[in-house]
Specification:
mainly beta, four-stranded antiparallel β-sheet, about 55% strand
Length: about 80
């Protein structure tokens, strides 16, 4: 893992020789991740993951389901 940024993800995906890893470059950067899967052959969004810095400087990550409802949130100090 490289220098930890405010948000960072790592993913191990079959068929890729290395894990996929990234994070925003800016201290107040944000990150949006969409996870899709098939439903009867159609691509549907399963989850959205949003990471951002709140106005008070706290770091927040939320996971939303396919209907856009927040399933869980996680808040930390920088």
């Amino acid at each position: 893992m490289s220098r930890l940024r405010p948000f960072y993800f790592e993913a191990d995906v079959d068929g890729y020789p290395k894990e996929v890893a990234a994070g925003p470059k800016a201290k107040d950067g944000r990150m949006n991740i969409e996870i899709y899967q098939r439903d009867n052959g159609e691509k549907v969004k399963a989850f959205s993951i949003r990471s951002f810095t709140e106005l008070d400087g706290k770091l927040k990550t939320i996971v939303c389901n396919h209907e856009g409802q927040t399933v869980v949130s996680f808040v930390t100090d920088y």
